[in-house]
Design the sequence.
């Protein structure tokens, strides 16, 4: 639009031109939004999407970090790496150990963390203290936790001295193939139960107190209120914790690496899928085979997640 100024009759008429608008407000907002998310998008492409694509290509090749050839120039072996995975006795042992570890950790961690969440959500004194006390182990590094448990479970450690009170002979737990994985399970539950407890606590605090009051008026006892009100209303929280815990246990690496010194001993009793993947890729430099193991693990986790989602699917009202 042009504006005509006529201050007086003697001065000539001046016409002011409206400046051109290169970007509308809507376009400017769109550009600003892309500029804000650009760092995240770039980092995701470089450090997540890119490596996944490269690893998928490597899983069909015979490639070593010591090779002079590029990844694209490496020898293609088709699906031989995937066939080799299911014929590898060490991988099958690692998969068995990982499944046993997951079966041991998941129910224990979910049950204990839910009980602790119920305790710190109840009307007890010093609730803040107990919440902090239960959560502190999750802030401790795995190396420190492993060192503590190595000390507790050694031949003359505190745990064996406690067992001796009841006349039970002690043993070197982490050096015994029959008990090394069980000791790691106990360590994992102790060090990670605080995370799931906090998530359960958040779910419990979302339940309106009026629901409990109405149930109490109707004569429902504590167990009935728990099974008829609490569990159904925190079903999404249980599903989230279950999925995340299973994924975490199937990806277990650091505890087994520290306890066994990286070799999965004794007698591969603490060898896990991710530890075996690491040894194949970065110790034996078989990057193609290690990439195939990674995608097999991904398919296992993806399948289990879909099954859990189906089991926890909400029924139509």
Sequence:
């Amino acid at each position: 639009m042009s504006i005509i100024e006529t201050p007086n009759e003697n001065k000539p008429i001046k016409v002011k031109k409206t400046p051109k608008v290169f970007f509308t407000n809507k376009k400017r907002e769109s550009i600003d939004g892309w500029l804000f998310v650009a760092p995240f998008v770039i980092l995701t492409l470089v450090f997540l999407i890119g490596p996944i694509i490269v690893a998928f290509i490597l899983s069909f090749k015979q490639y070593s970090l010591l090779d002079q050839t590029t990844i694209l120039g490496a020898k293609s072996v088709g699906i031989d790496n995937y066939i080799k995975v299911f014929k590898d006795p060490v991988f099958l042992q690692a998969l068995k150990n990982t499944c046993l570890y997951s079966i041991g950790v998941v129910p224990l961690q979910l049950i204990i963390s839910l009980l602790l969440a119920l305790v710190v959500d109840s009307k007890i004194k010093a609730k803040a203290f107990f919440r902090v006390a239960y959560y502190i182990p999750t802030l401790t590094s795995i190396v420190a936790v492993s060192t503590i448990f190595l000390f507790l479970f050694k031949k003359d450690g505190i745990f064996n001295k406690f067992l001796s009170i009841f006349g039970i002979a002690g043993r070197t737990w982490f050096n015994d193939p029959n008990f090394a994985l069980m000791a790691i399970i106990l360590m994992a539950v102790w060090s990670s139960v605080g995370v799931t407890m906090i998530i359960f606590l958040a779910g419990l605090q979302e339940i309106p107190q009026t629901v409990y009051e109405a149930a109490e008026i109707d004569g429902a006892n504590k167990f009935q209120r728990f099974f008829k009100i609490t569990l159904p209303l925190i079903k999404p929280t249980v599903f989230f914790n279950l999925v995340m815990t299973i994924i975490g246990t199937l990806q277990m690496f650091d505890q087994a690496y520290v306890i066994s010194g990286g070799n999965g001993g004794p007698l591969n009793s603490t060898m896990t899928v991710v530890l075996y993947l690491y040894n194949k890729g970065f110790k034996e430099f078989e990057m193609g085979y290690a990439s195939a193991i990674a995608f097999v693990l991904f398919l296992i986790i993806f399948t289990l997640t879909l099954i859990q989602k189906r089991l926890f699917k909400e029924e139509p009202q």
